[in-house]
Write a structure and sequence with these properties.
Order of helices and strands: EHEEHEEEHEEEHEEHEEHHHEHEEEEH
Structural class: alpha+beta
Number of helices: 10
Largest sheet: 9 strands, mixed
Helix content: 25-40%
Number of domains: 3
CATH superfamily of the largest domain: Pseudouridine synthase
Mean pLDDT: 91
CATH class of the largest domain: Alpha Beta
Length: 299
Amino acid sequence: MIDGALLLDKPVGVTSNVALQKVKRLFGARKAGHAGTLDPLASGLLVVLFGEATKFAGPLLDDDKEYLATLKLGEKTSTGDAEGEVVEKKQLRISEAAIDEVLQRFVGDLEQVPPMHSALKRDGVPLYALARKGQTVERAARRVRISALEKLAYEPPLLQLRVRCSKGTYIRTLAEDIGAALGTCAHLTGLRRTGSGRFSVREALGLEALAAMGEGERARRLLALPELLAGLPQAVLDAEQEARFRNGQALKGFSCGGLCAVYGACGAVIGLGQGEAGALRPLRLVAASQTADKHRQTL
């Protein structure tokens, strides 16, 4: 069984799930998932998880994301991106100084209303399905954080931005809101995810490159479980502590706070723990056989 992660550069025009299934077949994996969906019109970094690594999808989804976004100012579409019909046009008289000033307003915590063309559900029905029927429903605003918003290029009517943001941020909505703040309208014409947490698209491979590799070369591109969790604080357990931890018991005497990567004495990943008030409680556990395999490799 394959356990690990792959950094994939998803192409434009395919869904994240289609890309996932292609990679899953290439590796002959039984179980696979990913750490954050990309729309078909978006390209870039998709962290694909195999086997026991799928148990870490939640924390990876929580990581900040980085994008290159291209906005077309002066046009609003029905979907907020290039797929929709143009529903409004406005004149475009905007200086670069005005853009710089407006962008600064969007750095920090924001209240953002999710778009109707999104995968969020209302009574079990995706909002995009309702939107395709011409229906609009009220959506509660959500708090998101924009930690970086940088203008890379402005060639009217196109504005290219680098965005670093928290999970759950809708870049289409951000594009529309920036357009409104500039006194015009806007929609998203291009989106590329360049980073997720500490991972970069520069380290990723495309589907064609993966397909052209031999089985051994592809396997060497996998990130092992310790590499996947390398950015987290660590807690190391002895055999007795591991047994108690695997039985769901919180362990006292650990100083790490927040989310921790938990390892056995042999160096194998046990899972994830939450450190709080000097105690470590289990959150996600990998199969005990993984730890045993690692132990045998060190003998």
